[in-house]
């Protein structure tokens, strides 16, 4: 696995709030009671393990809504657009977040890591039984103590060792709950998954349904019908929603000008981009940016 070595904005944000709960730009651990819940769409640039220990929240992952509830484990992977909303007042999450490089170094040599990653991609949620919940919370508590011991010799290696063990625990949990042989999709679901993968790569190139049908070597009508039957939404609606979410992320989490965002999303000009954004949100890009206080791009 190859990852680019970027500065982790989400980890940087937590560092500014909880200065003893991190290791460089690579690893951070916390409880959401210590942090504000950010309810705008954000693109993850780290890997995060989240355990809901109280309450519940609706959660959008790449446009798909889910219910994140007590005793659920949720795993976020880089590139996912995440948004929490309609969360209960007592919603509390234990979080372990790390750069992909830190995770990769921690699990080097681990057998069956590819099947584990496949399970996570298809099933980011798993409901924990009492024993599994207790075990993961013990790891979280132990990790938090070790991370705060800044003078501990070989602190990073100890944390990596514990993280390696956690990944084995989670892999075993997934094996019980989501065996690979049960992860079979219908043809229409396969088309939708391929469409979303292609959309995540090509949304800056084209907003045309025909473009994506051709990318998947499908007739436009068959492609459109498959997406509609698999999801209840038109392919054009998925494209529009994805573009608007990306625009929101850039407006909220970067210092790019609206013209630069318009160019990056391949609009003919800033005026056309503004009309497109307002059509789908009810406000202009400038109003959206100015209506929100500037927070770092963090996934919680």
Low-confidence stretches: 1-8, 293-300
Going across the major beta sheet, what is the strand order? 1-2-9-4-7-10
CATH class of the largest domain, named: Mainly Beta
Count every beta strand, where a strand is a DSSP E run of 2 or more residues. Answer: 10
Number of discrete domains: 2
Distance between the termini: 26 Å
Structural class: alpha+beta
Supply the CATH superfamily name of the largest domain: Regulatory protein AraC
Strand content: 15-25%
Tell me the overall shape. Answer: globular
Q: Can you tell me the CATH topology of the largest domain? A: Jelly Rolls
Question: Can you walk through the features of this model?
Answer:
The protein is of the alpha+beta class. It folds into two domains: 9-182, Sandwich (Jelly Rolls); 187-291, Arc Repressor Mutant, subunit A (Orthogonal Bundle). It is 49% helix and 16% strand. It is built from twelve helices and ten strands. The chain has helices spanning 9-17, 100-106, 113-122, 130-148, 155-177, 187-202, 209-215, 220-231, 235-253, 258-264, 270-281, 285-291, and strands at 22-23, 27-31, 42-43, 47-54, 56-61, 64-69, 72-76, 81-85, 92-98, 125-127. The strands form two sheets. Strands 1-2-9-4-7-10 form a six-stranded antiparallel β-sheet, with helices on both faces. Strand 5 and strand 6 form a beta hairpin. Helix 2 (100-106) crosses helix 5, helix 4 runs antiparallel to helix 5 (155-177) and helix 10 packs across helix 11. The longest helix has 23 residues, at 155-177. It is globular, with a radius of gyration of 20 Å. The two termini are 26 Å apart. The model is unreliable at 1-8 and 293-300 (pLDDT under 50).
């Amino acid at each position: 696995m190859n990852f680019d070595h970027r500065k982790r904005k989400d980890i940087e944000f937590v560092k500014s709030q909880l200065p003893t709960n991190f290791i460089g730009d690579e690893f951070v651990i916390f409880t959401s009671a210590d942090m504000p819940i950010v309810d705008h769409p954000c693109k993850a640039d780290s890997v995060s393990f989240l355990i809901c220990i109280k309450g519940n929240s609706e959660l959008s992952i790449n446009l798909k809504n889910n219910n994140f509830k007590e005793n659920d484990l949720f795993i976020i992977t880089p590139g996912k657009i995440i948004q929490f909303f309609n969360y209960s007042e007592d919603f509390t999450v234990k979080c372990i977040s790390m750069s992909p490089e830190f995770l990769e170094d921690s699990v080097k040599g681990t057998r069956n890591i590819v099947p584990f990653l496949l399970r996570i991609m298809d099933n980011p949620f798993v409901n924990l039984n009492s024993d599994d919940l207790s075990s993961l919370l013990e790891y979280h508590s132990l990790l938090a103590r070790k991370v705060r011991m800044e003078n501990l010799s070989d602190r990073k290696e100890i944390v990596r060792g514990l993280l390696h063990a956690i990944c084995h625990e989670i892999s075993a949990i997934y094996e019980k709950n989501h065996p690979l042989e049960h992860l079979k999709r219908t043809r229409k679901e396969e088309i939708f998954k391929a469409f979303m993968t292609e959309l995540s790569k090509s949304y800056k190139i084209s907003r045309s349904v025909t473009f994506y049908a051709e990318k998947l070597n499908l007739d436009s009508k068959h492609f459109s019908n498959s997406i509609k039957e698999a999801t209840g939404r038109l392919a054009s609606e998925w494209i529009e929603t994805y573009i608007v979410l990306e625009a929101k992320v850039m407006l909220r989490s970067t210092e790019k000008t609206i013209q630069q965002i318009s160019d990056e999303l391949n609009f003919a000009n800033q005026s056309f981009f503004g009309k497109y954004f307002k059509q789908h949100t009810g406000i202009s890009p400038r109003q959206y940016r100015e209506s929100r206080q500037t927070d770092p791009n963090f996934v919680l």
